[in-house]
C-alpha cells in the first residue's frame, strides 16, 4: 500500500471531529440533559422526552435524513485527508431497491461513512435517483441526540423491521449492511483481506423476500489506516474484549496510527487512499419464504461476484497480483 502522507493540522482536527463527536454528544449532552430536568429549565428536556416517545419508531420507518447535514464541509476535509473515493462499475436503476454488502468492516468504516452517509464524494451525482442508507447498531438510536445525528446522515437501524421498511416502501433505496459485523473489526490489520461471510446469509434471505438486488462492494485501503494490537484467544485481554462486546455490542479494539508529528504514534489514522468499488447488482427473484437451498444458491453467487470484484480491481488500488480474498 502507498506510504502515508503527513496531514495538515486543519485536516487532522477535522478528521478527529468525526469519531470524537459521538463521545462529545454522549458525555456532554447526556449529563446536561439529565441536569436540566432538575432545574427551572425542566420543560425543555421534558418536551424533548415527550417528542422522543412519539418519534421512537422513526428510525425503523425510513429515518429523517438531512441534505444540509450530508453536505457539511467537514466531510470534504475527511475525504481529502486520505483521500476517499468511490468507483461505480454499473448503473443502479431507481426502479429497484438494493441490499448492498459493505466489505470490509475495518475499525471505523471511514470509506462507507464518507461515501454513503455524506455527499463528500458525490454519491447523488454518481448514482442519480438512488437513496443510500447505511445500517448500524440499533441501540445507537435509543440515545437522545445521537439518533438525530445519525438519521440526519441517512444512517438506519440494522434491525429487521427497519430494513424491511426501506425495501418495501417505494423504490430507489440502497441499504448498506456491513455483513462481517463487529467481529470483522478484529480482522482489521494492514495487508489482510479476510472477510467474515461464509455463514452470514441473513442478508440474502432478506433480499429474496423483497426481490431486492444484491450489490457487492469492496473498500480498498480500509484496513490499512490503523495498526491493531491482536491478543491471543486465551489471554485476559481477549476475554475482556469478548465480554465488552456482549455488553455493548462491539469490540474494544486496541489500535494506533500517527500523530500530528511525523514519525510518532497517535490516534490519527494513516493518510492512505481509501477507495470503495461498487459492483454490478445481482438480480434476485422475490420469494416470500425462500428455502435454505435458494438462500445458499444466491449467497454463493454473491460471494463469487465479490471475489471477482476484488480480483478485477486489487492491483489498481495497491494490492499485489497474488493477494487473495479469504472468507471465514
Walk me through the structure.
The relative contact order is 0.16. This protein has a 7-stranded mixed β-sheet with strand order 1-11-7-2-5-3-4, sandwiched between helices. The protein has a 3-stranded antiparallel β-sheet with strand order 8-9-10, with no helix packed on it. It contains 11 helices and 12 strands. The chain is α/β, with parallel strands linked by helices and 328 residues long. The mean pLDDT is 88. It has one domain (9-319): Glycerol-3-phosphate (1)-acyltransferase (3-Layer(aba) Sandwich), CATH 3.40.1130. It is globular, with a radius of gyration of 20 Å. The two termini are 23 Å apart.
Can you give keywords for this protein?
3-stranded antiparallel beta sheet; alpha/beta; Glycerol-3-phosphate (1)-acyltransferase; 38% helix; 7-stranded mixed beta sheet; globular; 11 helices; 328 residues
Number of domains: 1
User: What is the average of the pLDDT values?
Assistant: 88
Radius of gyration: 20 Å
Q: Name the overall outline.
A: globular
What is the share of helical residues? Answer: 25-40%
Total number of β-strand segments? 12
Can you name the CATH architecture? 3-Layer(aba) Sandwich
First-last Cα distance: 23 Å
Query: Could you name the ranges where pLDDT drops below 50 across 5 or more consecutive residues?
Result: none
Strand content: 15-25%
Give the SSE order as H and E letters. HHHHEEHHEHEHEEHEEHEEEHE
EC number: 2.3.1.-
Organism: Papio anubis (Olive baboon)
Main location: endoplasmic reticulum
Protein name: Acyltransferase
Amino acid at each position: 500500500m502507498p506510504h502515508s502522507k503527513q496531514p495538515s493540522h486543519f485536516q487532522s482536527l477535522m478528521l478527529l471531529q468525526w469519531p470524537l463527536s459521538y463521545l462529545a454528544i454522549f458525555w456532554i449532552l447526556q449529563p446536561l440533559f439529565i441536569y436540566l430536568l432538575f432545574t427551572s429549565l425542566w420543560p425543555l428536556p421534558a418536551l424533548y422526552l415527550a417528542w422522543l416517545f412519539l418519534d421512537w419508531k422513526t428510525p425503523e420507518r425510513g429515518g429523517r435524513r438531512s441534505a444540509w447535514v450530508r453536505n457539511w464541509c467537514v466531510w470534504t476535509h475527511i475525504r481529502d485527508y486520505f483521500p476517499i473515493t468511490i468507483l461505480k462499475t454499473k448503473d443502479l436503476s431507481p426502479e429497484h431497491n438494493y441490499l448492498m454488502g459493505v466489505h470490509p468492516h475495518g475499525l471505523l468504516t471511514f470509506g462507507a461513512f464518507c461515501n454513503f452517509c455524506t455527499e463528500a464524494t458525490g454519491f447523488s451525482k454518481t448514482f442519480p435517483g438512488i437513496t443510500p442508507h447505511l445500517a448500524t447498531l440499533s441501540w445507537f438510536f435509543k440515545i437522545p441526540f445521537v439518533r438525530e445525528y445519525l438519521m440526519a446522515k441517512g444512517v438506519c437501524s440494522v434491525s429487521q423491521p427497519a430494513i424491511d421498511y426501506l425495501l418495501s416502501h417505494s423504490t430507489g433505496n440502497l441499504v448498506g449492511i456491513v455483513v462481517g459485523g463487529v467481529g470483522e473489526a478484529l480482522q482489521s490489520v494492514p495487508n489482510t483481506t479476510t472477510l467474515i461471510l461464509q455463514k452470514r446469509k441473513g442478508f440474502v434471505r432478506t433480499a429474496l423476500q423483497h426481490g431486492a438486488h444484491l450489490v457487492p462492494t469492496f473498500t480498498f485501503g480500509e484496513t490499512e489506516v490503523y495498526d491493531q494490537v491482536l491478543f491471543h484467544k486465551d489471554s485476559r485481554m481477549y476475554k475482556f474484549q469478548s465480554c465488552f462486546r456482549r455488553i455493548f455490542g462491539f469490540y474494544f479494539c486496541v489500535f494506533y496510527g500517527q500523530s500530528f508529528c511525523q514519525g510518532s504514534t497517535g490516534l490519527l489514522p494513516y493518510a492512505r487512499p481509501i477507495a470503495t468499488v461498487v459492483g454490478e447488482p445481482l438480480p434476485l427473484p422475490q420469494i416470500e419464504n425462500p428455502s435454505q437451498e435458494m438462500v445458499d444458491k444466491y449467497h454463493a453467487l454473491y460471494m463469487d461476484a465479490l471475489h471477482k470484484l476484488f480480483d478485477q480491481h486489487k492491483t489498481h488500488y495497491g494490492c499485489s497480483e497474488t493477494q487473495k480474498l479469504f472468507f471465514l
